[in-house]
Amino acid sequence: MESAARPGLNVIGMRTLLAKEVRRFLRVPGQTVLSPLVSTILYFLVFGYSLGGRVHQVAGIPYISFIVPGLVFLGMANNSFLNTSSSLFITKIQGTVVDLLAAPLGPAEILFGFIGGGMVRGLTVGLLTWAAAALFTGFKLTHALPTLGFLIVVTYVFSVLGFLAALWAEKFEQINFFPTFVMLPLTFLGGIFYSVSSLPEPWHTVSLFNPMVYMVEGLRYGMLGASSLSPAVGGTILVVVALVATGVAFAALRTGYKLKS
Amino acid sequence: MGDTVLEVRDLVKRFGSLIALDGVNLDIHAGEIFALLGPNGAGKTTLISTVCGLARKTSGTLKLFGIDLDVDPVTPRYQVGLVPQEINFDPFFTVAESLYIQLGFYGKRKDPARVTEVLAALSLESKAGSLTRALSGGMKRRLLIAKALVHRPRLVFLDEPTAGVDVELRRDLWAYVRKLQTAGTTIILTTHYLEEAEELADRVGIINDGKVLLVEEKNALIRRLGEKKLQIRFRSKVTALSEKLRGAGAILAEDGHRMDYVERPGRPSIGEILRLVYAEQLPVEDIETRRARLEDVLLMVLRGRPRLEAPASLDEAIPVAAGALDVAFRDK
User: Fold this and answer.
1) What ipTM did this prediction achieve?
2) B74, B91, B101: residue with CB nearest A16
3) Tens of pLDDT along A198-222?
4) B278 touches chain A (CB under 8 A)
5) By residue range, what is the domain housing residue B161?
């Protein structure tokens, strides 16, 4: 058996938590992967084919292809958020949070273990959505590196947000507050089904305050090579959002906010 | 006793206006079994939670294995195991998986031999592949113990470890705890079964209202504060006891068919009383003695009852007013 008593990052502990989080959602794949995949594909079919029949093209791209990055984003955002939020919240409710708090796991190990699990689930759903869409539209990847960057940042940000929501929530009703009243409006108003550049003022300017817009446009740039916003600006904004969210989560874990009595 | 593995200094924990721990000081030595006793809400679990990182202290110092937890709250925890009072389980995983996860959390790699050993010790080997939600209450409690021990901690906190566990298994667990101690593990135990503390503990701490009232070696404590009770039944009615017996604290029942005596420090021994009874040729039919139990000591300390002063020997016997304990005993 490996000797454990050593200072520094508990790498095995963090990896174990990450693996546990991944195994947890894979134990119920119908609920955690298949169900969101079906929902997103339905969006694709309904919006893509019904609206696509009338809109035809946006920014020179067939409408059915135009909505693919947004739908990939939608699947990733929802599932990254849901994985961390539901897992941590259930851990709190069931009392198994004791196992984490009593173990030699610092804020970094706990945070990145949970975030890793959320990112894996988000990326799994997002990539499967992309693959399913490719069956209808053909596979297109214009800028590989920016696409990868946005895939990672999107899943990371929503995993951290899910973690923060679960830290804060004390009731099931509260854990549903963010997906229903914050994420859903912001994602649907985030340019998944339309280009924000086509919006009249002041809605165009208002849209620029919605971070989801940059995520969708960033992915659209990477996958389709077309974007109404600068991917560099969008990427910078998202990295700042990710850093701030990480800092807040880190501070919360350090102080034991709503975890320790 | 060995080195100090846990040092608690002036520990205070407040929940709003409630003071759950009120300046607790405690040293736990390597290799001992320490029983922390007290009524519900006394602060036992709060103390354990604060040491184990489940609760934030308000003030004071905590050192585990000489490391101040304010300076390094993580490293000492590699050597600590906790059996929490509340049963918890992750329904997504099997019993064996839960132990592998626990090993990983403590920085150790998968060790099937160790997992098998711990499962066997806790009579759970046949459930290794079962989902935790399929276990009975007693099995879930045993799984908690297995999780606390699988990484071979040097210090184990057992917070009500045998609540809901049947008598036979409880005895097995006690044997296992003693085996752990033999292997050098330090154990801090809270329990409502005082028999458990009496059976296992080397030292006892009594806590109430967040204050540690007493810390002492168990046997010395029982000898010091414990009472031994003597009850003699008479064949025929005895009208009165001699001056010497009354002076020593013996009490004759109203019907004259029973005499009660409580031996405690400073009083004549039961042997001396018996010699006197036979010397006076009282009509003894039956004699019953009951040795001091930890439960009696705990109640005495918690009730803050005064220790009754009495003559050290029969020769010095003087009449002593019956105290509260004597009255309580006579009324039984």
Assistant:
1) 0.87
2) B101
3) 888 888 888 888 888 999 999 999 9
4) no
5) 4-222
